[in-house]
Design brief:
The protein is of the alpha+beta class and about 525 residues long. The protein folds into three domains: about 190 residues, no CATH class; about 160 residues, no CATH class; about 80 residues, no CATH class. It is built from 17 helices and eleven strands. The chain has a five-stranded antiparallel beta sheet with strand order 2-8-9-7-6. The chain has a two-stranded antiparallel sheet with strand order 1-3. A two-stranded antiparallel sheet has the order 4-5. β8 and β9 form a beta hairpin. The structure holds adenosine monophosphate and magnesium ion. The site of adenosine monophosphate has 17 residues, from loops.
Length: about 525
């Protein structure tokens, strides 16, 4: 591979405008009166490109040839710091599983710097590039397994139209990392990797919370102003008093969060660790850890074994947890606005926006113009009463004529078992109700399927598909990671020859670690 210069121009407004920790290096410490600490990525032995995202590369202005160069792998493994980069880790706190955890911070994320693009500015961030002051007792590294998952899912979500941080690259480091995958006293060496993520901002609810918890109110205000100026241009331009701006910011974060969660519920995504440090101020999906995709439709499902008892972050609970998290953000902003009333009003508006968004989204999934409460309640009841693959179900539903007497048979491939006659009858009865609703709402049957297929993906990053890509990657074969990315670039399209990627979970994956059970260990 040839060596190519990567001409990226940095414009680091965050580090220029926010106060820095006077100490540098990765010595673990509490960092007060500062938003970040300068720290260099760790050198690794043998960086090797596993995959990159064409669309993300285009965003930052890098060509295919540049992405395939040795320089690229060196830079995005953390081995080479380019001129203009200002590597740093940021300080935040958060509520973990409902409890205030104090200072957390970028324990294994290092921001490299910000660049300006045609679509706005982007922060480049390495995940897994070594320890920072915020690494606490951990090593700041990431394993290939979790990096494949983060890389693929970020781009899959983008192509699904769900707000998310992006992933530019996935580079293996040539070094081994020790992990006790299930926290059961069986640590093993696994290959290490680094993902480069992109977002206009990696600011989390926890950044505001940390400053509020330390009663650093002046800095909280300075930081909030920076965030508004940088990423909420409409609010900055609207003028008004400082209090007005902070309230508007909160209202906007509530709206974006509601829309993001509607997106998750539409495609069957379960984040798995919705701690307040994993909530983006931009309303983007962030921090892909033990996430999972609903296969059989079970609103109580969570992929995260760490949360198996409480199931705080189960699929059906996500809208409510997001609101709880927003309340923590409101508490953090309260010192800046004094009066809690407008913040409370915004929290109520969140609930209304979510509900309306969800209703509209469910109507669209069925190709309807309007929400039909009894019809949709009936459907959710049906989907959860038999093991039904949600993704397969909606695609098949788009194909059938609900008025046909044997229509339910078209749905049989969506089932993991063989539903009995009683269930078949319920489905047929529901299909009649559906037919009635379509007629009442005068839905054009010629365009219904296309409309449904535009919101119901055929291809999602099924848990076992990610695991198959990981299995190969761990053997040094990256073809499957790249093919999976390729399929997930067009999730709503039929892709002849790639049907295997749309297949429901095979039996072997039902109980396999990594497919149905994941831990935070990554
Ligand atoms: P997470 O649950 O992955 O969002 O991480 C929670 C906190 O733990 C964050 O502050 C992370 O930066 C930190 N963390 C997670 N894994 C590691 C690691 N391997 N090394 C250092 N810090 C980590
Ligand atoms: Mg996190």
């Amino acid at each position: 591979m040839q060596s190519l210069d990567l001409s990226l121009e940095f414009d680091n407004q965050f580090t220029a405008e926010m106060p820095a920790d006077p100490e540098t290096g990765s010595q673990r410490r509490q960092v007060r009166a500062a938003l970040y600490s300068r720290v260099q990525p760790q050198q690794v032995r043998a960086p090797r490109l596993v995959a990159y995202s064409r669309e993300a590369a285009e965003l930052v202005g890098l060509s295919d040839a540049q992405c395939q160069s040795d320089d690229f792998a060196a830079v995005f493994a953390g081995n080479r710091v380019l001129p203009g980069m200002d590597p740093h880790a940021t300080c935040y706190g958060g509520h973990q599983f409902g409890n205030w955890a104090g200072q957390l911070g970028d324990g294994r994320a290092i921001n490299l710097g910000e660049i300006n693009t045609a679509g706005g500015h982007l922060m480049l961030q390495l995940k897994g590039a070594g320890p920072t002051p915020y690494s606490r007792s951990a090593d700041g590294l990431a394993v290939l397994r979790s990096s494949v998952r983060e890389f693929l899912c970020s781009e899959a979500m983008y192509h699904l139209g769900v707000p998310t941080t992006r992933a530019l690259s996935l580079v293996s480091t040539g070094e081994m990392v020790v992990r006790d995958m299930l926290y059961d006293g069986n640590p093993e060496e696994e290959p290490g990797a680094v993902v480069c993520r992109l977002s206009p901002s990696f600011v989390r609810f926890g950044h505001f919370q940390m400053l509020a918890a330390r009663r650093e109110h002046k800095l909280l205000q300075q930081f909030t102003e920076h965030v508004i100026e940088r990423d909420f241009a409409a609010i900055a331009a609207a003028g008004g008093t400082p209090e007005d701006r902070y309230i508007k910011l909160f209202e906007e974060v509530c709206r974006r969060t509601a829309d993001m969660i509607v997106g998750w519920m539409r495609v069957g995504f379960v984040h798995g660790v919705m701690n307040t440090d994993n909530m983006s101020i931009l309303g983007e999906t962030i921090d892909y850890g033990p996430y999972g995709w609903l296969e059989d439709f079970d609103p109580d499902w969570t992929p995260n074994t760490t949360d198996a008892q409480q199931r705080r972050y189960r699929f059906g609970q996500q809208p409510a947890v997001a609101q709880w998290n927003l309340m923590q953000l409101a508490n953090a902003l309260l010192p800046l606005v004094q009066d809690p009333e407008p913040l409370e009003a915004a929290l109520s508006a969140y609930a209304r926006r979510y509900e309306q968004g969800w209703q509209q989204m469910m109507a669209q999934k069925l190709g309807l113009k309007e929400f039909d409460e009894p019809l949709i309640s009936g459907l959710l009841q049906l989907l959860s009463s038999e093991e039904t693959d949600m993704t397969v179900f909606y695609r098949l539903l788009a194909q059938l004529e609900p008025g046909d007497p044997g229509a339910w048979q078209i749905l049989t491939p969506a089932y993991y078992g063989s539903p009995g006659t009683a269930h078949q009858q319920s489905v047929q009865a529901w299909l009649s109700a559906y037919q009635h609703s379509l007629q009442t709402q005068q839905v054009d049957s010629a365009t219904r399927a296309a409309a449904m297929n535009a919101v119901n993906p055929k291809y999602v990053l099924r848990n076992y598909l990610a695991q198959l890509a990981i299995d190969d990657a761990e053997q040094g074969d990256f073809a499957r990671v790249n093919e999976t990315l390729e399929v997930l670039r067009r999730p709503y399209e039929e892709q002849p020859g790639r049907e295997a990627y749309a297949a429901k979970r095979p039996e072997w994956a039902r109980t396999r670690v990594g497919c149905s059970m994941l831990s935070c260990s990554s």
